[in-house]
Fold this sequence. Notes:
The longest helix has 27 residues, at 103-129. The protein is of the alpha/beta class. The chain contains 15 helices and twelve strands. The protein has two domains: 2-251, P-loop containing nucleotide triphosphate hydrolases (Rossmann fold); 274-337, Beta-grasp domain (Ubiquitin-like (UB roll)). It has helices spanning 13-21, 42-51, 71-76, 78-84, 103-129, 136-150, 162-168, 196-205, 214-222, 225-234, 241-252, 277-284, 286-290, 300-306, 309-314, and strands at 2-7, 33-38, 55-57, 60-65, 89-96, 178-185, 209-212, 255-260, 265-272, 292-299, 319-321, 331-337. It is 44% helix and 22% strand. Residues 7, 9-15, 27-28, 68, 97, 184, 213-215 line the site of guanosine-5'-diphosphate.
Amino acid sequence: MKVGLIGRQGSGKTAIFGALTGLRAETGGNESHLGVTKVPDARIDRLSEIFKPKKTTYAEIRFTDFPAQSNEKLKANAALIAQMRDVDAMALVLNDFDGASDPLKDLRDLLAEMILADLVVVENRQTKLKKEKGKEREGEVLARCLKTLEAEESLRSIDFTPDEESLLAGFGFLSRKSVIALFNVAEERAGKDLPDNYRKELERLQIPGLALSAKVEMEVAQLDEKDRQGFLNELGIDEPARDRFIRASYKLLNLISFFTSGEDEVKAWTIEQGTPARKAAGKIHSDIERGFIRAEVVAYEDFIRYGSDAKCREAGKLRLEGKDYVVADGDIIHFRFNV
Ligand SMILES: Nc1nc2c(ncn2[C@@H]2O[C@H](COP(=O)(O)OP(=O)(O)O)[C@@H](O)[C@H]2O)c(=O)[nH]1
Ligand SMILES: [Mg+2]
């Protein structure tokens, strides 16, 4: 999963990037950064204790810290927009720490900017389509997009059919991507919930939001695991923003994890909710998808209760599932395949 950090210069994107990835990135500059963070998962920790594998692999989120954006710059910066089209979700970083910014206005402006960027794409494409034959379907769908964008609404507000979705997939529309608002608050507000007027506005915009303090979180990220909780407790913060953010992103993007386990490796794989077994197998290797025979599935909870595959089998908890089985969060799966 790829998540882009978007926001004004000085909103704290690079600071948050550092907190999320544990990488030391110089703040105050205008560079972009790429980094990967592990998705913490107590189930993987537990499976790892049981199997003692040579390797333990957590699910990952890839972050891109984009350079600064102002309204003018985003519209004029085609290369930046192209990069943004490539992410699965966007975290909109809002300066809420300096007391001089208006984070809700910044949020609305950023959303409006993305709508504008999409509008340009739709208009250009429609001009081209007028000269082509046999693209009526696409023209119809784009006309709906245009109407929505002209009303200054994001494309997230439209329910497309799967067919329409695939017609639109190539455009990478910004206003169709999942977004989460990150309010970069001052240290004193780090452990507090979002104020009511923020909640109301987020509800109206239908966007989830989180408050965090980039400054605090950067310090947290640099601490040893053992010192971390004490430091957070002192500030009245339950858990690092990194963990809260990752959980929110998973939920937002409708993502779940399934596991593969053995003596060589215990590994978490990220899929969308509703993914059938054969397609999930393709995450591991295209050969397994192609030559899929069946999936042997044990739910994580059952595995922990009974302690081994053999015991699960005796108890009837090891299931043989076909290609259309919808994989559930926490399924431990052995795929049988033949190529
Ligand atoms: N006081 C305070 N300063 C911050 C916070 N987050 C970022 N800054 C400062 O704001 C400046 C810009 O931050 P940076 O992360 O580079 O912003 P970016 O332009 O969005 O990447 C730096 O000097 C940071 O130290 C914060 O939460 N509190
Ligand atoms: Mg930066």
